[in-house]
Amino acid sequence: MADDDRLSLNTATTKRLTLTEALEAAQRAGLKHVGLWRDRVAEVGLPAAARLVAGSGLNVSSLCRGGFLTAVDPADRKAALEDNRRAIEEAATLGTRELIMVVGGLGEGDKDLVAARQRVADRIEDLVPHAEQHDVRLVLEPLHPMYAADRAVLSTLEQALDLAAPYAARTVGVVVDTFHVWWDPKVAEQVDRAGREGRLASYQICDFNLPIAADALLSRGMMGDGVVDFSLLTRLVDATGYQGPIEVEIFNADIWASDPDDVLTTMKQRWAELVLPYLTSSAAPQRV
Amino acid sequence: MADDDRLSLNTATTKRLTLTEALEAAQRAGLKHVGLWRDRVAEVGLPAAARLVAGSGLNVSSLCRGGFLTAVDPADRKAALEDNRRAIEEAATLGTRELIMVVGGLGEGDKDLVAARQRVADRIEDLVPHAEQHDVRLVLEPLHPMYAADRAVLSTLEQALDLAAPYAARTVGVVVDTFHVWWDPKVAEQVDRAGREGRLASYQICDFNLPIAADALLSRGMMGDGVVDFSLLTRLVDATGYQGPIEVEIFNADIWASDPDDVLTTMKQRWAELVLPYLTSSAAPQRV
Question: For chain B, which domains are there?
């Protein structure tokens, strides 16, 4: 395979670029995949976004994101379900099966994590029929435990796989994001489990930078700039037989302020040094 | 029991106070226990510290802290073992069995978390005979995963209990610190396990404040100021039959800048509101 055949640019990494600009940047860098955030899709509207993506020849590795399923208020719950059903439809229209789900945190003043986690389980159950109907997979994303209160009450891969267990692997999967799982003492066991269960739907990479950024969401770093052992995690993912795209998704103020082409150049260098050597599987499936 | 019979002031909460001042503040507040950090002990020297504590009539609930066991270099490893042996002796001299262990993070540039965790296991094995000889317990503290690289490669209660498993419960235990474990989907199961295995050696409380502080170590907050569900965690600890002291340990720049007597007043109010209602066990064992 060509070196970059599996590398995917997630549009969060080039936050300042419009959808068109991000697609062009990925093409200039010789990439075959992009991971799309819904904000970039919404800016041009779904039909235009689908045309742009189809015209680019790029494969969409995932759509980010559905989720935010922890609302207690019935109206908020209904709104969240409607938004997630739209996200499912958007994924199908854009040509990806993988809808990344960031499940949401606790409401203001709410401290009942156990109940919030149960609400997530209930909303997943509500969404599964619509996902099945559109042949889209709800890809549960465990987030680093420092976001458990304000971003995602789903905190470990084990918890995500337990939550996915009642459903077909084709309909509910998990994403391994290096930033969120590198610290987990059970990561080897649970990545292997995700593979065995056929639920490993996406592999997202970036580093965990220290010190933690003032806005903790922006602590994601370019591979090699932080503490993550990409050789270990990539070997684990590779050992499952995962052959899909590998998305670089970085929220980082310095990277956002840099020239996007320079960012992609660095991204390809770090990929070649830190990730590619640990991949044995053949190229990612191409767009059909 | 009197309302505050189990409440313990950890000297980290009153960082500006000397050992003498912290003991006096605890006495003024009507407390029966203090948790000591080694820096406050070192300032006056161990014999004087032991005399001051004995003279105060206060029980020492724990000594904080041993640990930092991840060194690779043989000289650094030897120094760490010597320091931990001294910490064991200090705990015995100060009249507590419980030596809290913060195991340490990765060295500069090191990303091999698996190997670092194995070194911790090896150093615990090295230290167990000395701990047994002095009848002191090595109390393993899992730290929040946001500190996994720079502070403690021990990240969950499950991992701590697995690490403790080869040894007698009297010699290797664990501490449940609300700040570090509140997010863990397995916290109920693992606190119960700690109780069943006789390893629940200490219960430390404080809140998890958001946003995360610029210095992430200082995100600990007064109970009630953050996202922690003290009713849940206290019920879990109580259900194990744990009857020991409960230490308030807060690293927080605003609290350190406040009048210590005011801090203790607030601490007692929050304890009475948020923790005490969930305790059914009788009073903590007193100093003999």
Answer: 7-278 (3.20.20.150)
